[in-house]
Structure formats: C-alpha cells, structure tokens
Amino acid sequence: MSVLVNKNSKIIVQGFTGSEGSFHAQQMIEYGTNVVGGVTPGKGGSTHLERPVFNTVRDAVTSTGADVSIIFVPPAFAADAIMEAAEAGIKVIITITEGIPVKDMIPVKEFVKKKGITLIGPNCPGVITPGEAKVGIMPGFVFKSGKVGIVSKSGTLTYEAADQIVKAGYGISTAIGIGGDPIIGTSTKQAVELLMNDPDTDAIVMIGEIGGSYEPEAARWIRENGNRKPVIGFIAGQTAPKGRRMGHAGAIIGGADDTAEAKMRIMSECGLHVVQSPALIGDTVAKVLGA
C-alpha cells in the first residue's frame, strides 16, 4: 500500500526535453518508475529517452492513460502547465519548479481544489514510494521500502530522515515533499492525513520549518483524531532571527506562533514525539516503533 504514487501510476513529464526534465526523467526511468511519455509544445510526434513526446497534456493522457504529471517548466509558464494538467484529467500533479509568482499560484490553487486534484509543490523534491515509483528529484538509493511515512517541507531533510530511518532498520512507505513556496497545493495536515489513512504506514515523520501555520494545524488535527499513529516531529530554523527569510520563500517568522520554539511546543502538547535535532530522527523512530 502507498499514497499518491505507486507501481501502477502512469507518469508524464511536462518540460520533458529541457535539461532539468531530461536529467530527472532519466533518473526516474532508471529507478523503475513507469514514465509513459512527456510534453514539450512543438515537439509532439518525436521521441525522447525512448518515450513519446506530445504537444499537449491532453494528447498525452489520451494516448497513454497518464494519471500523474511531474512539472519541470520555468516559473513564468508553470502555473499554466499545472492548470493544463488539471484540465486534462491528471489526478496527481507534482510541481518541482521553484519561484512561481504568488499572484499566479492563487488562482491555480483554487482551480485544482475545485477539480479535486492533488497538487504537490511547487518548489518541492517530489514524492517517492520506494521500490515502486520515484516522481521527483530525490536520490532514490537512500530510500528503502518499509512502514514509516515522511512529510517534509525540506528536500534535503527528507533524504536525511530517510537515510536515518533505513539505517535504524526500518523503511519508508511513501515520502512526500510538500514544497517550500508561500503557496503550495497540499498542506502538512493534508499530507499527514493521507499517511494516517494508509494501512501500511505505522508511523509518520513530520518535518517542518519556521513560518506559516502548517505544522500546528497538522499537530492539532493529529490530536483531535486520537493520535492514531505515532508522529515524530522536527522544526528547522530554531536559530533564525525574526524577519529573516531562511531558505524557502515561505520560511520567515511573521508572528509569535511562526517560530520554531512555538511550533515545537504546540506539537509536544498535541502528543507528537518532538526532536531538537534532525540527527535524532532515526533513533526516535526506532524507540517509538520498538517500544
């Protein structure tokens, strides 16, 4: 069992023939991901990486039955690419592109919500179900199959957590990098909810960062729903000064509840196993699941 992507997913790549799309599509194919084609306007009818290229997402869906898309389109055109995929009937849209203008993302988020589509990102590392499908830019070799789900705003901390969990003797069910831009399609709570409802996920690692209210909202939802599975939490940016943006565009302390300290306190109050350092994630997972 998994969430969002698995061995049966049919994946297309938007921005397929560009340098980023080509590199990561090749990595995905080598991992064993079922990439059925790609989209580059004007290059329809050709082949790339031994896969068909289409002019539009609709053409790709009609021809291949694709249900997942990963987007490597420049920021100025990425919002249109997301809406094109949604309009064509893609069910899961994973947007790697960083820096899509906020004014573009506001209508996009509403558009995909109305259509009942899952948008992951933008500015995310993607989603991986180890051994089945890698739809993103993460190093696949780090991830081994298991029963610990990961939800993270940070790409590198996703890989770090996965590595620790595997070295602790466990594995990953699905890892979801939700993205670090100010407006993203899937919140921490929504991603946690997917893993809570996955029968093959026994525990969840939730990695957040300063700024916004995603992590407290997720923590309160976990408590309200009876803490059905253990959740190990970490917040990055514990030393970040107020008003200074840290890494991701959305990681900026705007109020008292945006700090790492406040978020970690709320998470602890809600029954999460909060760690002070990312170096403790693997050990804490082992302690929680071994108890």
UniProtKB/TrEMBL annotation:
CoA binds at T17, G18, S19, E20, K43, I96, T97, E98. Transmembrane segments: none annotated. This is Succinate--CoA ligase [ADP-forming] subunit alpha. SUPFAM superfamilies: NAD(P)-binding Rossmann-fold domains, Succinyl-CoA synthetase domains. PANTHER family: SUCCINATE--COA LIGASE [ADP_GDP-FORMING] SUBUNIT ALPHA, MITOCHONDRIAL, SUCCINYL-COA LIGASE SUBUNIT ALPHA. GO terms for cellular component: succinate-CoA ligase complex (ADP-forming). GO terms for molecular function: nucleotide binding; succinate-CoA ligase (ADP-forming) activity; succinate-CoA ligase (GDP-forming) activity. Pathway: Carbohydrate metabolism; tricarboxylic acid cycle; succinate from succinyl-CoA (ligase route): step 1/1.
